[in-house]
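Good morning N.,

You mentioned wanting to compare the apo and holo forms, so I went ahead and generated the holo version with beta-L-arabinofuranose. This is what I fed in:
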Amino acid sequence: MNQDKAKPLESHAAETTSDAEAVTKADLARASQLKPISSPLVTHMYTADPSAHVFNGKLYIYPSHDVDNGQPLNDNGDHFDMRDYHVFSLDRPFGVVSDHGKALDVKDVPWAEKQMWAPDAAEKDGKYYLYFPARNHDGIFQIGVAVGEQPEGPFIPQPEAIKGSFSIDPAVFKDQDGSHYMYFGGLWGGQLQCWRDGEFGEEQFPQDQQAALRPFVAKLSDDMLEFAEPPQAIDIVDENGELLLAGDNHRRYFEGPWMHQYNGRYYFSYSTGDTHKIVYASSDSPYGPFRYEGVILEPVLGWTTHHSIVEFEGKWYLFYHDSTLSAGQTHLRSIKMAELTIDENGKITPIKPYYD
Ligand code: FUB
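and this is what came out, ligand included:
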């Protein structure tokens, strides 16, 4: 575990020499002045993309395990070169965090080659399912599933990726009738722009005045191992019922979907990517259309932002990440949590991750 030890701010400062790192130098200055509202939940390794769930009365977190493998920083996300997953648990919010060790390694997944990005988990009939994206041996992201007997794993991967799956960032939501739905999709490195009618091809981005690229949803099969239906794109609309446009960078979808239900209404939240916000939209159906509502989390230090929302003993919590522990290195992030305020109408009070 020593090789995972998070580098302290000072040691990174001594290494910042290249152009890419010049940006990090600026971040370093900024990082040292920021006053975060919450501390990293895990400091012995870098962790990101926290998907939180309550299983057996405890909070379980399924994050990415960030590592520095010397890959270049680029829009393709090559620097996110993660190779395994650890599962963490807390007896109570903000309590002691247990690391349950390695739950799945890319070398044990026959269909996957690299880049174990943001995972999620679900429970059904006493079995636990870890859903994860990775690049297959052709360099194409797909989503796989691995099965465990306990929330913390270990998880045994299915030999093939989920049929018909593509792109990244699976988030699995259990509806009140027991059905499970997977929401997924991410732009740029996540390859959503390369998919048209179920076929992978050249990337194609819409013009600013055209409808934005949309995330997808599919109901899961009873055995939780496949899609029960072809994935369908989700509409996210503005106050006039019009699809959000590609140029609407502060509101349109980029990656990192999550679903929670509040007073029977469905709340779909996600990252806006290049404007670095977590925002949300609501609907009376798990398939949408979802009407844009507002911001949940203002930008954090580091390029990416990724979250989950969970209720524990009547209170709501936001799990998120930032790069303060690594002094702003985008690919070396740390998971955090904060209490969320939701009013009786489901309206969420936006969180500022740093004090003014
Ligand atoms: O962790 C790798 C990628 O960064 C995730 O899949 C995205 O959501 C972003 O957080």
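The two ends are 36 Å apart (CA to CA).

Happy to go through it together on a call whenever suits you.

Best,
F.
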